Amino acid sequence: MIRAALCLILFSLPQWAQAVTCSDQTHEGRSLTVCTADATQENLRLFLRGSDGAILGQFRDIERSLEDGKTLAFGMNAGMYHADRSPVGHYVENGTEEMRLLTSGSKGNFGLLPNGVLCLQDGAIRVYETLDFQKQAPTCRDATQSGPMLVIDGDLHPRFLPDSSSRFLRNGVGTSSDGKTAHFVISNEAVTFHEFGRFFRDVLKTPNALYFDGKISRLHAPQLDRSDGGFWMGPIIGVVEPQPTITE
Description:
Layout: H1 2-12, E1 14-15, E2 20-27, E3 30-38, E4 43-47, H2 59-65, E5 70-77, E6 91-93, E7 96-99, E8 116-121, E9 124-129, H3 130-136, E10 142-146, E11 149-152, E12 155-156, E13 170-175, E14 181-187, H4 193-204, E15 208-214, E16 219-221, E17 226-227, E18 236-242, E19 245-246
Antiparallel strand pairs: 1-19, 2-3, 3-14, 4-18, 5-16, 5-18, 6-7, 6-10, 8-9, 8-10, 11-12, 11-15, 13-14, 13-15, 16-17
């Protein structure tokens, strides 16, 4: 009877597809959350505007905008934006360019060159340093430019200081050399650029990694019972999958 009851409970739980896996980790005494996505299997997308042209800005707004039967299995802010929440740098969504590629220096972290571009293709996802992106000119279904680069061909950004006192919550993405895997990371406490970059280089072993933002860093990870609110966001990256079914 006990075994039968246990089986009934298990089969009654929502059946979640493992499109993206998220876990809390510790590196050098700092807490981070890592969400790993397989670009060959998962529906990775960028989100900025709804069907009415208005900027979405919150994970709940993306959830409401999805097709029937779909849900947001993962989400993260994905690039710097202006006061009106339009992208600072290059932005492409579903093949339509909203903002051109910026290759010159500018203010703030975005202008801490070299910066980079995250490029989503069908079955692939890659981080490119901006000038390399301009040279190679890959065709991206979705793309978002941000900065600075965290890791460039296996090396930390040359301007990161080991003894920096500048600490913030930070988030970013690193991609595997074959373009199949992306690791999205958010720090759960304030870290320096050097500490954050080392995690991508030394632990995740990503040859290239890109900084998304700090202070406003937000994560949507239902499997961890987490969906950050607060600041309104500009570009957001997410994994879309079928809604879980309940088997009785």
